[in-house]
Structures are given as structure tokens and as C-alpha cells.
Amino acid sequence: MVVFGEGPEADGFAMLAAAAGYPVARPDRARPEEIDPRSAVVLFFHDHERELDILTAALDSDAFWIGAQGSRTAHARRCEGLQDRGVAKPAIDRVRGPIGLIPGTRDPRVLSISVLAEIIEAAR
């Protein structure tokens, strides 16, 4: 799990994933060469402006799962921002959002469980 962001959502997810036995990295920036096909890239930002650089790099990687916290509106804006950067639609379609199997949850613990379950399901 390659986790970006700060606050209770990112911290809770990283702790839960580690407790479940998954390796967790919390880098300062995305480096595509350090993300392999077994990696899931997860973004937990409330300030969505910070996401585009990370997502652009993540989309250049072999990550099997890429997702970012936020509403459907935030996801649409995120996708528009990637398109404005020249990212192709098939690549943009790799970015999941809203993330988690439990729609609309705001509780950081429930969100963490929900996102981890979605990633595990996708890994199967």
C-alpha cells in the first residue's frame, strides 16, 4: 500500500493495512519506478489540488489499483485536472473515486476498512 495524505483517514488506513499484514509506504512524492504491479496507491487529501502530481506519477506506474478520497464532484474535478494535463482517458479511468465499498462514509475507521476491502477485492 502506497499511502498519501495526512490526518485520521490516511493514518487510520495505513495502520489498518499494516495490522492486516500488508507492507505500507508513506512517501513524500510518487515515484513510478518504486510502484510495482502489486501496489495499490491511495490518496487521502481534503485539499484535492495536491493530488494531481501524485496521480500523474501513479498513472505512469504499474500499480494495480489507484484511488483517491472524495465525493463524485471532487472525482470529476480530479479527472478534469488530469485531462488538462494531457493524461489520456484510459489512464484517467484507472483512478477510482469515490473509494471504498461503503458509499458516503465519513468516519475514518469505517472508511479505512471500506477502502482496504475494496483493494483486497480488486487484488483477487
Question: Could you explain the architecture of this structure?
Answer:
The chain is 44% helix and 12% strand. It has helices at 8-19, 51-59, 72-84, 89-92, 108-123; strands spanning 2-5, 40-44, 65-68, 95-96. A four-stranded parallel sheet has the order 1-2-3-4, sandwiched between helices. The longest helix is centred in the last third of the chain and has 16 residues, at 108-123.
How many domains, as an integer?
A: 1
CATH topology: Rossmann fold
Helix and strand sequence: EHEHEHHEH
Highest-level CATH class: Alpha Beta
Number of strands: 4
Q: Architecture, according to CATH?
A: 3-Layer(aba) Sandwich
Largest sheet: 4 strands, parallel
Individual helix count: 5
As a whole number of angstroms, the C-alpha radius of gyration is: 13 Å
Helix content: 40-55%
Q: Structural class given helices, strands, pairing? A: alpha/beta
Strand order of the largest sheet: 1-2-3-4
**Estimated share of beta-strand residues:** 5-15%
The CATH homologous superfamily is called: NAD(P)-binding Rossmann-like Domain
Taken from the alpha-carbon principal axes, the silhouette is globular
Uncertain regions spanning at least 5 consecutive residues? none
Averaged pLDDT, please?
A: 96
